[in-house]
Amino acid sequence: MGYSIHMDFTVAPEDLEFGDRVRAWVEANVPRDWTIEYPYGSPEWVEFQKDWDRKLYQAGYAGMFWPREFGGTGASPERRFVFAQVMAETGAPEGLGHLGRRVVAPILMTHGTPEQQRRFLPPILEGREFWAQCFSEPGAGSDLASLSTRAELVGGRFLVNGQKVWTSNAEFCDWGFVLVRTDRQAPKHAGISCLAVPLRAAGVTIRPIRQINRQSDFAEVFFDDVEVPLENLIGPLNGGWRVAVTLLNYERGLESAMSRFADQRRAVESALLAIREKPERDRYLDAHALGRLQAEILAIPIVAMRLLSTQLEGGDPSELASVLKLQHSNAWQRDASRVLLATGQASMLKREPAESQFLFYLMSRAVSIGGGTSEIQRNVIAKRVLGLT
Ligand SMILES: Cc1cc2nc3c(=O)[nH]c(=O)nc-3n(C[C@H](O)[C@H](O)[C@H](O)COP(=O)(O)OP(=O)(O)OC[C@H]3O[C@@H](n4cnc5c(N)ncnc54)[C@H](O)[C@@H]3O)c2cc1C
Questions:
Q1: Dist. CA 117–CA 6, nearest whole Å
Q2: Average pLDDT of each block of 10 consecutive residues along the chain (389 residues)?
Q3: pTM of the predicted model, to two decimals?
Q4: pLDDT score for 262
Q5: Residue 111 shares a structural domain with residue 19
Q6: How many angstroms is it from 113 CA to the middle of ligand 1?
Q7: Taking burial as the number of CB atoms within 10 A of a residue's CB, which of 61, 182, 342, 376 is the most buried?
Q8: Enclosing domain of residue 279
Q9: Residue-wise over 28-45: b if at least 16 C-beta within 10 A, else e?
Q10: Predicted pLDDT of residue 264
Q11: What's the distance, CA 119 to chain centroid?
Q12: Is residue 308 within 8 Å of 253, Cβ to Cβ?
């Protein structure tokens, strides 16, 4: 395999103490019933998430994964891992700023100019500006390089026209990290660039998409002659493909996997509770199935840690990112129906999303699509890990 692993899974006592401090802080700062109190997508939810981003910053946790030179903690891989684990286990909110912090910021640190870093990084860290990822289009999902939203250089600025779709949280965000075609003659991967587009600019229309679970996690985003200054080009002109690939690795990385890990653990715990209440339900989740499910879930943080250490050593984590994404989507999808059956009809009536196994089941259909489908992850693994052509 193309990556090296230097890891020691023993967590030092000071990192464990750090974990205890974070846990106590979350418990003191997150209302127990926040998912009921602030229904997803409501104005109260948006404010609550933004407030959480600011709290993370004030407590010094927003930059847990950032190097010191950009205002982060420069924490060791072990400490980052402990942090991600505690956040996942305690069911802490992710904050509206999670995409900015986890995905956009590392890209700006690597590919942004010093001016862009000064302009964009502090508001992300402090929870003042929020980012959405505008990649997918009606005609470009898995084959992202076929995208047709275009940006033309006219009079020293870009004019952007086209449509994006499935943009998570677009209606609540300030900035779009937008992939655009800047050279229509070049081969498709070579004519793409990345732009920071203000989502409240004239010419941007955001239309939320209503889902089967009654929520609107994502939206369609339309660009009609949207003016974007030249200095908002991130990375080289027509060199956006490499930037986009780096971004996807962060999207499929440690923190996303850890929050999936927490969701799955919680689902299994409520299935166990249901079986304890009605032992006959164990026909849906017998000891063998349960053992396999637990093992699959426990493997997620281990692979996540390997991914993190590869990333920190400057290695290419693409294969591991695909393994991790495939692993947690598979585990979730394969067992969600089993967990749903074990918890029974009552699960459909629960209001609280974290507890509702029905919503957990519905969401399991989406996890093998968002962030790149399972087939695409398998293609990456086949080519890059197994060397198949
Ligand atoms: C919950 C969720 C959140 C999302 N958030 C965002 C977001 O914030 N920003 C954003 O830009 N996008 C987002 N997306 C969109 C997501 O990235 C795309 O849906 C995904 O990349 C698949 O693209 P598609 O829907 O066009 O399907 P298609 O690419 O049309 O795929 C259709 C089917 O064909 C299969 N297929 C396609 N190509 C191949 C191939 N080469 N080999 C084998 N099988 C193949 C796919 O696996 C799939 O089963 C989100 C999606 C979901 C579900």
A1: 31
A2: 43 92 96 82 92 98 95 91 88 93 94 98 98 97 96 96 97 97 96 98 96 86 98 97 87 73 74 75 77 82 82 81 88 79 70 62 87 93 89
A3: 0.91
A4: 75
A5: yes
A6: 31
A7: 342
A8: 246-385
A9: eebeeebbeebeebeeeb
A10: 75
A11: 23
A12: yes
* Domain harbouring 354, CATH code: 1.20.140.10
Nearest ligand 1 atom to the CA of 363 is 1
In terms of domains, do 196 and 310 share one? Answer: no
Alpha helices in the chain (DSSP H): 13-29, 34-37, 43-58, 77-89, 98-99, 105-111, 114-125, 240-251, 254-277, 287-312, 318-343, 357-367, 374-380
Shared domain check, 74 and 32: yes
Q: Is 251 considered catalytic here?
A: yes
**DSSP assignment letter at 140:** B
SS3 of 380, please?
A: helix
Pocket of ligand 1 (CB under 6 A): 133-136, 141-142, 166-168, 217-218, 366, 369-370, 372-373, 375-376, 379
Cα 241 to ligand 1 centre (Å): 17
225 and 97 together in one domain: no
What local confidence, expressed as pLDDT, does residue 351 receive? 56
Find where tokens 């995409």 sit.
99
Position in ligand 1 atom list of the atom nearest CA 140: 26
pLDDT of residue 217: 87
Give the distance (Å) from ligand 1 centre to CA of residue 141: 5
Measure the CA–CA gap between 341 and 362, rounded to whole angstroms. 13
Task: Say how many Å lie between the CA of residue 370 and the centre of ligand 1.
Answer: 6
**Ligand 1: which atom is nearest the Cα of residue 143?**
29
Residues 119 and 150 both lie in one domain: no
Q: Which two tokens stand for residue 287?
A: 């000891």
Q: Which two tokens stand for residue 306?
A: 């390997």
Quick check: is 38 in a domain? yes
> Of 129, 137, 251, 319, which residue is the catalytic one?
251
For atom 26 of ligand 1, the residue with the nearest CA is: 141
Residue having the nearest C-alpha atom to atom 9 of ligand 1: 167
